[in-house]
Design goal:
single chain; mainly alpha; Cytochrome Bc1 Complex, Chain D, domain 2; 2 domains; 11 helices
Length: 240
């Protein structure tokens, strides 16, 4: 059978094709976070508090999660889901999400490198600055305290696969997390090296460390350091 395309049929076919092409172009122009089947859409519950790229809030209430090791972020999501880390909004948000979903979310934010939000610099006494600098850069051998940079990196950007960066965190957040570790409200995989360290810190030490960290200018576009188990002062379950 010979098929003949008439002018009318050609016009009909053209009209039928154009909307499909237009829809395809429109879909390509749609921002990733508006597409149902995209990781950007799946993390909208996260960015509501932590920022579109995980940069945290300007006042630092919600911490920066961008650029932290994916293994660390994944461990925290698992802890929130399983209830071993307590913060109700996060516990509810991830309560029914599977491991693969949480891993995808962690990898997404680990790959982000947004600019750091300016934060208010704390006012510290000279003694507090000196103590904070000592603990962060050299530790305190008399108390068995290693330097923060021994694990969290020379630029305080963390270490793969499971140690977070400390750069850009507000003092109150750092104080809160160290205190929770010291009193047993926060845990990590055994051996829990942070619990061991936090138990040796006084309230003054914690305030000095948090304040000194807030005085540091975060490195631009830096990434966590590669894993270096030889350099680490303690065995740490988060690095398995």
């Amino acid at each position: 059978m010979k098929f003949v395309t008439t002018p009318l049929l050609g016009a009909i076919l053209f009209c039928a094709v154009v909307p499909v092409e237009a829809q395809s172009q429109a879909a390509d122009a749609t921002p990733a976070f508006r597409k149902l089947d995209s990781v950007e859409a799946r993390v909208q519950g996260c960015v509501t508090c932590h920022g579109q790229q995980g940069q945290g809030t300007a006042n630092g209430y919600f911490p920066r999660i961008a650029g932290k090791p994916a293994g660390y972020l994944y461990n925290q999501l698992i802890a929130f889901r399983n209830g071993t880390r307590h913060y109700p909004p996060m516990n509810y948000l991830v309560a029914y999400l599977p491991d693969a979903y949480l891993k995808e979310m962690a990898e997404h934010f680990a790959a982000q490198r947004p600019a750091y939000s300016p934060q208010e610099r704390p006012v510290l006494s000279a003694a507090a600055v000196a103590r904070g600098q000592m603990l962060v850069t050299a530790g305190d051998p008399k108390k068995g305290l290693p330097a923060c940079i021994a694990c969290h990196g020379a630029n305080l950007m963390g270490m793969e696969p499971g140690i977070p960066g400390l750069a850009g965190l507000r003092p109150a957040y750092v104080v809160g997390q160290l205190t929770r570790w010291r009193v047993g409200e926060r845990h990590a995989a055994e051996p829990d090296c942070m619990k061991r360290i936090a138990n040796r810190l006084t309230d003054e030490d914690i305030s000095a460390v948090a304040g000194y960290l807030a005085l540091q200018t975060p490195a631009t576009n830096a990434s966590p350091e590669p894993s270096n188990l030889v350099r680490m002062p303690f065995a740490c379950g988060s690095q398995r």
